[in-house]
């Protein structure tokens, strides 16, 4: 693992008018690590994720990203073209609702292939071969390559969205409740797949979830948010086994016994 963070957030704040979406947020993400952001509904998780992935303007603070050439600029200092390039190549974003991250009316193969074309791949045979490989990696039969996601189940759509995001070998993936909209049995399969792929590819991931079981399964480090602020952060096992902040203790105590 590199000795330098891939993402560094300092004193981040986002206001909605006078209302604070999140404030006083500082943390680092290291290459190859999965960081979970947890907290109840309205605690500011999605606001934070959108700000650090450049999808939403911040009101204050810095978000620096380690470029492949070693530079560590604030996202706000990048040109629009550089930001678009990052979003297409170095980063992925897995939405809770697959329809937000897929093109529902083009084929599964094209959904994966168009990310490859965005990074310069032009050879039709290569694109189709790589798309087929990726469909199989996410357990979608190659025979479905020409089907549109509208004809897929929720779990298949989510797996396709994951393939579309990972095909370009990004370095950092943002995930917003990636299993939130799925049935429990389907969730387990998607989580297993995510865990395997993230480890195989050595990805850095920032995942937002309200589900502590998801955080336990996927993340090494955890950030707990309440009312727009971080109340506790640390290694996931430590936070869950020995929560120090009363709010984290409450969250942990509310996990149903399985
Ligand atoms: N566009 C907006 N305008 C005004 N207030 C907003 C806006 N988006 C979010 N908020 C407020 O900011 C706070 C944080 O919202 P956010 O969606 O980040 O929370 P969350 O933890 O992701 O919640 P959930 O798990 O329900 O998605 C909430 O009180 C919300 O009402």
UniProtKB/TrEMBL annotation:
It comes from Methylobrevis pamukkalensis. Belongs to the ABC transporter superfamily. This is Putative phosphonates utilization ATP-binding protein PhnK. The lineage of its organism: Bacteria, Pseudomonadati, Pseudomonadota, Alphaproteobacteria, Hyphomicrobiales. It holds the Pfam family ABC_tran. It comes from the Bacteria. The keyword Metal-binding does not apply. GO terms for cellular component: plasma membrane. CDD domains: ABC_NikE_OppD_transporters.
